Amino acid sequence: MRNFNYKNQTEIIFGKDTESKVGTEVKKYANKVLLHYGGGSIKFTGLYDKIVNSLKNENIEIVELGGVKPNPRVSLVREGIEICRKNNIDFILAVGGGSVIDSAKAIAAGVNYNGDVWDLFIGTDINHTCLKLATVLTIPAAGSETSSGCVITNEDGLYKRSTGHPTLRPIFSILNPELTYTLPKYQTSCGIADMIAHILERYFTNEKYVDLTDRLCEATLKTIMENALRLNNNPNDYNARAEIMLSGMVAHNDWLGIGRLGDWATHDIEHELSGIYDIAHGAGLSIIFPAWMKYVYKHDLNRFAQFANRVFDIDINLNNLEETALKGIEALENFFTKIELPTRLSHANINDDHIEEMSKKLVAHYDHVGNFVEIREKEALEIFKLAL
């Protein structure tokens, strides 16, 4: 197990009707906020009015910036930075899913930076003060409500890149599972794939003697999958929604990664996919993760056999660990199919036109991606081919 420091400042306010507390909570930190959100869904559901009324009841001045799209764009981030500077705003309230929260984090990181915010996503460290932010989560998926990182897409060149800093963890996050009832099934499933991928990125490690976090990863994976299938039968099952929402937070608040070095190659590879094709991140992950697993599983057959056994209850064949490992990968693909996600590029109507381009762009700024197995252009191309 590796040495580690762990600190997570985010206060979690969880449960029914908790969004009504947003004004009281924001008032502890600010009298003026940038209210950041996506399209019209929060207005259609009535959440927008609840948030605005709660803020106004506390005499909090509101400046709005909507329009966040999935795979959030740096152009809107730049607009948000200018709004905050012109209006002397030092607190951002993100109402939405991971895309909205990531966009808010990028704005928070860029306001006090002396250059273009994109610099912070291509190698420039964040070593300045970031704005405070808070969230009202509507889509359990990215785990951005408690994480220190964010991902942004640059329309110029279709690059999708990440950055992070401890001060980008939200001050507080409001999580009401009832707010997820209106999510389309596909969006719910994409969120489930995202949180599963966050766990698997940490689970597949070369670090030994990490038994506790192995077991925590496995338990969280089983919880997500069991409750995802419950939602297939009843989308308004509050308890299943609550388990999913809580699991999404746990999957990416870094607790499951303590003492171990995660991989993250699959996320980097998927960023190239969604950067060009604008596919939902979770759907991209349900395609790329099994392909990555098929490429690297021989690197550590014991770990892949353990995954198959502990997560999917597959008996370990001690005389043929490869057979067990492959059954585990197949079981993951079958689960994604059960929640109606693609597991091949062809399922998303994507062919091989850009796989060489994506493989080159993947390592344009780095020698390689991944820690479990180092992935360079050649290896990435093979993984894209396995995903076809």
What can you see in these coordinates?
- The chain folds into two domains: 11-179, Rossmann fold; 183-387, Up-down Bundle (Dehydroquinate synthase-like, alpha domain).
- 47% of the residues lie in helices and 11% in strands.
- The protein is built from 14 helices and eight strands.
- The protein has a six-stranded parallel sheet with strand order 1-8-5-4-2-3, with helices on both faces.
- The chain is globular and about 70 Å long.
Q: What characterizes the major β-sheet?
A: 6 strands, parallel
Q: Separation of termini?
A: 37 Å
Summing up helix and strand content along with how strands pair, one would put the structural category as alpha/beta
What is the number of helical segments per DSSP (H or I, 4+ residues)?
A: 14
Pfam family, one: Fe-ADH
Domain Fe-containing alcohol dehydrogenase-like C-terminal: 193-387
Keywords: Oxidoreductase
Protein name: Iron-containing alcohol dehydrogenase
